[in-house]
Amino acid sequence: MSNPHTSLTLPNPLPLDSGQALACVEMAYETYGTLNADKSNAILICHALTGDQYVASTHPITGKPGWWERMVGPGKPIDTDRFHVICANVIGSCLGSTGPQSPASDGEPYAMRFPVITIRDMVRGLVAMLDAMGIAQLHTVVGGSMGGMQALSLAANWPDRAGRVLAIATTARHSAQNIAFHEVGRQAIMADPHWCGGDYYGEESAPDAGLAVARMAAHITYLSEEGLTEKFGRRLQDRDAKTFGFDADFQVESYLRYQGSGFTRRFDANSYLYITRAMDYFDIAEEHGGTLAKAFAGTPARFCLVSFDSDWLYPTAESRHVVHALNAAGAPVSFVELSAPFGHDSFLLDVPALDRVVKGFLDG
Amino acid sequence: MAERPALRPDLATILERIEPGSRALDIGCGDGTLMAALRDEKQVDARGIEIDGACVERCVAQGLSVVQGDADRDLEFYPDSAFDYAILSQTLQTAARPDHMLAELLRVGRRAFVSFPNFAYWRMRWALMRRGRMPVTRHLPVTWYETQNIHHVTVKDFEELAAQLGVRIEDRWYFTREREIGGGGANWRAEYALFEVSR
């Protein structure tokens, strides 16, 4: 099957943290702006869990604008008049890069035969892609949430590959609470009768109900109580009274159902399993002898971390933890906690202070 | 580069004294005016700590490395002798424990610059004596209940604290009405003071 996305095939098998290797890896990517002659103006944007490479262009399935269109473009904080912006679909995902639904060597989808991957493996894929593009050093690697984990992982494991590291609303390790929420999502998928042990490709039904529940549970963690209350309160949906049944009486229920069902049209359930697992395994300190400062020792990069006061998924303390480690490592680091009402999702939404910080960090 | 507004005299003195190419930590760096000058004029590797998010934002926008944090709590995360200089301008009087703060400054920095408003300045004494109320002056413009200054200090107090902690005073400067003044009778003549100290 031809790949409708722009992609390149990595020339070598990709070694993985699990000890396995992934052959014939496709990396699907989008670029914006022009790479200059000495290839010094490239910015790699790393996407979040359910994100993709369409950071600043129309999504081919939903038809919606890119997920960070407000941040990336001509004259925008990540200015494509100045920078060559690259955003790739991570391995394990489902929008053109090799993942569980890609064919294995026998021509059948990998499904659960796909090896368990880590955030570092995703970054390995991205670095191999940059090698194939001939980009030795990025001007900046940028990411929010899981994208921020990739940015930090790149800085820790490939310290010469990025001059600047901008990590937003993220963490250097997944907490027990983070893992717990992901486990709820995974169990919802695996409990769906259409999951079939992961072998649902080519079947009439996919585990959409389970995937939708996973998305609903996760979506709650992306918002803040204040934001939810402001948006929905306890208002009822298209009715004047409670039905004393299990329809979506409340607006918030209807909203979550909408989020869940919309998600199943653009995302693969098995990819959700693999990527959440990668996030749960994420612990940069553990990879470096238990000390986070060691992970960043001697890094030449400049760092900027941003957190949001209403983010309870990756709260400010997680960013501070990274900042303290970077200080201990002597790395030049900036950190600011921005005030925004939207919870974890603030990094995707209209927060003018974030625009100023991003622009300032890239220009400064 | 745009013309920089004139630095406050204590900051100008610090800028003058700091060795080119050294490493400095500006604690309570505000909008980064001193850090930018240190970077641009002395090629100093300058880092900052600032509690106010809007100030940090302005610093980041100038390409400065500033961490939003509380000096009372966050200084401990910086390694010993990480800096040639630690700078604490007009902030000592806001510290929870100025004595601990001074010790921390000289743990993370080889030397430190400390400036603070002198509460024994004659106008303060006069205002307190005449009106019997906490003075509100040009240099300490905020009413007692809303001021961030929780430990008012005088030139003499600081000298005594330095002696108690075994901190060496390398140099000192006194300022009144944004001008440097001589050292005679500084404890009552100086509106604020700047000390350079070392371990």
Describe this structure in words.
The complex is a heterodimer of chains A (364) and B (199). By secondary structure, chain A is an alpha/beta fold. Helices cover 35% and strands 15% of the residues of chain A. The longest helix of chain A is centred in the middle third of the chain and has 16 residues, at 176-191. The N and C termini of chain A lie far apart (45 Å). Chain B has a single domain, classed as Rossmann fold, CATH 3.40.50.150. Helix content of chain B is 34%, strand content 25%. The longest helix of chain B has 11 residues, at 98-108. With 199 residues, chain B is α/β, with parallel strands linked by helices. An eight-stranded mixed β-sheet of chain B has the order 3-2-1-4-5-8-6-7, with helices on both faces. Chain A: It is found in: Cytoplasm.
Mean pLDDT of chain B: 93
Distance linking N and C termini of chain B = 37 Å
Radius of gyration of chain B, in Å, reads 16 Å
Shape of chain B: globular
Number of domains of chain B: 1
Total strands of chain A: 12
CATH architecture of chain B: 3-Layer(aba) Sandwich
Strand content of chain A: 15-25%
CATH topological fold name of the largest domain in chain A: Rossmann fold
Protein name (chain B): SAM-dependent methyltransferase
Pfam family, one (chain B): MetW
Organism (chain B): Erythrobacter litoralis (strain HTCC2594)
InterPro entries (chain B): Methionine_synth_MetW, SAM-dependent_MTases_sf
Present the secondary structure layout.
The complex is a heterodimer of chains A (364) and B (199).
Chain A: E1 7-9, E2 14-15, E3 21-22, E4 26-32, E5 42-46, E6 72-73, E7 78-79, E8 84-88, H1 119-133, E9 138-144, H2 146-157, E10 162-168, H3 176-191, H4 208-222, H5 225-231, H6 251-266, H7 269-281, H8 284-287, H9 292-295, E11 302-308, H10 316-328, E12 333-338, H11 352-363
Parallel strand pairs in A: 5-8, 5-9, 6-7, 9-10, 10-11, 11-12
Antiparallel strand pairs in A: 1-4, 2-3, 4-8
Chain B: H1 9-17, E1 23-27, H2 33-42, E2 45-50, H3 53-61, E3 65-68, H4 71-74, E4 83-89, H5 98-108, E5 109-117, H6 122-131, H7 155-165, E6 168-176, E7 179-181, H8 186-189, E8 192-198
Parallel strand pairs in B: 1-2, 1-4, 2-3, 4-5
Antiparallel strand pairs in B: 5-8, 6-7, 6-8
